[in-house]
Every structure is written in C-alpha cells, then in structure tokens.
C-alpha cells in the first residue's frame, strides 16, 4: 500500500503549481465545497477528492485515517481558520496514537512573522503554530513569501532607476534585489 498525502484547501493558489508535481503520489484532497470537489476531480483525476468540513474534529480524524502525512493550508481570512488548523493538528496527534497508524509528518503553511498579532491572518496562524510546537508530532512550518526572480528584479531596477537616480538610493536598492 502506497503512502497517502492529505492536502487541505487544494483548490487554492498554493496548490495550483504543486499538485501537478505530485501526480505520482497517492493524494487525498480535502475540498471545502462541492464546487471545489467538482473542479478538482476534473483537473486531478489521479487523486482521491473528498469534501471535508475541517471545522469538525471527527471529520479531520477520518480524513487522516491511513495517511502518512498532511500538508495543511488554511483558508486565509476564513472566520474559522484557527479552528480548522487546530483541528488538523489534533487529528494528526490522534492518528499517530491509533494502532497500525502510518502517520509521520504534518506540514503547515503559515506566514512570516506570526508575532504581528494585529494582522488577523498572522494572529490566527500563530495559535496553530503554537499547538504544533507543543504537540508530539513531527512537523514543518512553511512561511511562503513573495519571491523575486532575477528577471523581475532587473525590470524593477529599470523602472526605479530614473526617478531615484538623484536621490542616491539606486545603488542600495539594487544591492538588496540582486
């Protein structure tokens, strides 16, 4: 039996580039809505797609049954994002204790600097990170950021070099981007 990787919120932006790369793996995609299920089944016929209410702890436990790992991406700005994340951490901890469990790892997609409590999405994710850190799980916290490619930095430099030439910021700004 091959390993099962569970992915939450698979219809979101993070997964649009990742899912095609994971086609060779056994995937269980946990969609939040019927519309997402329909879209995902059409786009990724190789995956098991389920509609899952991850605000329900029992549903999270069922979702992880028999899974080796979960990559949890919470729906940003959802009023119950914190609850969903905590449920996934708790369900993973329960799954590790189940006889015959093969669960090994939880990956959580967070944000940079969760200590900024005035930013709602940072504040909510900080509680999930804390729960992970005190859990018995093997885990990874990812902090996706906007990244610049070399081409983007050169385009930005070309656009910014003329207006800022006389201010003396061009060199320091360029050094930061290259």
Automatic annotation (TrEMBL):
A Pfam family reported for this protein in Swiss-Prot or TrEMBL: NmrA
InterPro entries membership: NAD(P)-bd_dom_sf (IPR036291), NmrA-like (IPR008030)
NmrA-like domain ranges (all copies): 45-138
Superkingdom of origin: Eukaryota
Signal peptide: none
Record protein name field: NmrA-like domain-containing protein
Naturally occurring in which organism (per UniProt): Lecanosticta acicola
